[in-house]
Amino acid sequence: MQIVNRSSSATCFACCAFLGLLSPARAADPRWAYAERVLRKAGAETDGSGLLQFIRAQTLNEDQRKALADKVRALGAADFAEREKVSRELASLGRIALPYLRLAVDDPDLEIARRARRCIERIQRTPHPSVVALAVQMVKVRRPPGAAAVLLDYLPNVEDEALEQTWLDALRAVGWRDGRPDPVLLAAQKDSRALYRSAAAHVLGRGDSAETRQRVAPMMDDRDARVRFEAAAALSRFGDKKAVAILLALLDDGPFPLACQAEYLLRILADDRSPEASLDKNDLAVRKQCRKAWETWWKTESARVDLSRLKAEQPSLGLTDVCEDGDEGSRVWQWAQAGQPCWEILRLEGAHDMQALPNDRVLLVEHHANRVTERDRTGKIFWEQKTDDNPIACQRQANGNTLIATYRTLYELDRAGKEVFRLTDRRDFRDARRLPNGHILYVAGDGTLVELDPRAEHQIRTIVPENYGEGAKYRARVEPLLNGRYLLALGGSNRAIEIDALGKIRWEREVRAPMSATRLRNGNTLIASYEDRCVLEVDRAGKEVGKQALEGRPYAARRH
User: Fold this and answer.
1) pLDDT greater than 80 at residue 539
2) Which CA distances in Å does 240 have to 25, 243, 245, 283?
3) Is residue 519 very low, low, confident or very high in pLDDT (cuts 50, 70, 90)?
4) Are 399 and 11 in contact (CB under 8 A)?
5) pTM above 0.70, yes or no
6) Which residues contact 231 (CB under 8 A, 6 or more apart)?
7) 178-196 burial, b if ≥16 CB within 10 A, otherwise e?
8) Residue ranges of the domains in the chain?
9) What is the DSSP letter of 413?
10) Spatial CB neighbours of 279, under 8 Å, sequence gap ≥ 6
11) I need a surface site. Which of 15, 197, 485, 533 has the fewest CB within 10 A?
12) How would CATH label the architecture of 2-13+317-559?
């Protein structure tokens, strides 16, 4: 290994700035032109009152939801013709049937389970945007009177967890008028339905009104874990130490996805003083150990922890960026929670990596063209750097420098294109990134993980993942996790794995040619499968909980 260091000051990496949903001042955003076309084709008016009327018409009442659940049970009817008829009907319903079908995939009746899986596959095989979610996103922009009540009424019909963020994001926008909360949200605090109470806690607890936040505080003692989490996650941002105690308790007495989200927030608070214990498996003993470790941390560090750190941590918007290689060239594009494209850049020459930048720009690796470019969403180039070898990774730093990895070289350039350091490794490179502490983490061609300090020009640690085989033979990606571990996508061994600092595998999932893997806040993992032409979301047990089919083959997928 050889380092050429031309700068005494290393820079910390810049967090990818997410591309937020549209504000009223930016109504020309192309996603809304797309949304209007789809909604009008579905017979919806796109003014405020028309949007609310459309959402009301799609909202199932209790009787209708029960009828849909009964229809899923009919997949196990004694008559074959009836089973076939029900299967066709459920598949034709599309996304609205997914929550009921997913509940049936583990049904003791094997016929019901088999047919439920087939219906889900058929629905996902022809992905289409959720038209109601498009309407909800436009409601956020239009903010018509009465919107909060309509959005709350639809919440029980939301077809998957990721789409809930669409509704919560819109509720945060429409739930306040002139600094005062909508009365429907205040009433929802005492609703018998936990889903309504949790939505109220999420929105009201993030308001600027101290009086309103005080009304949310008792919700941290709610009988429902989701309500407790939403209240604590919101109020912890404003310095409420009881909220931290609620997050700690959820580590072992809440549903596992909520425990993962609680752990995510705690690790942000702990920063580099985070305990090593982690929610490794949905195992009560492990979870109790994790909670105990975090409670010990809190006793030691509570006086020094700055809870306002969480204010910078915005709720997830569910936007997904993907680099995709197609039969007619490469593209980089983004889809929102509803599945609709937000923007795309076409005719790229091997888009293998990207980073979302502020001001609606994107930093792109163009592998086949031997260059890294910075573009806006129309594809216009604002910065370009040619490389001597095929580039595989890029990262813009906080000071404007750019880290570029090719197969043979890793180097950093300032904004003017002047090289500030260069690194070579006889094993070549497969991925690289700056860490918050200024160190560089990279994957060598033999699968070894290396962390080095470019200022001192020496390696801090070297990690050899166990049983990695030929995982890095073609492509590998690494993501450092908040728990001190590493998530690796090993394209050559058809696996995504999580390893600890000793290289021991703590989690793994088989996937055909994974090109990237990233851990989501709820503990799930988003994986780009090159051979299966899709982006998968799997839970900690490895079970598929979401899938976006693609026309081309993805090289990278990230959600923010």
Assistant:
1) yes
2) 34, 5, 9, 29
3) very high
4) yes
5) yes
6) 201, 205, 216, 217, 219, 220, 222, 243, 246
7) eeebbebbeebbeeeeebb
8) 2-13+317-559, 23-174, 204-315
9) E
10) 251, 256, 259, 260, 263, 286, 287, 290, 523, 540
11) 15
12) 6 Propeller (2.120)
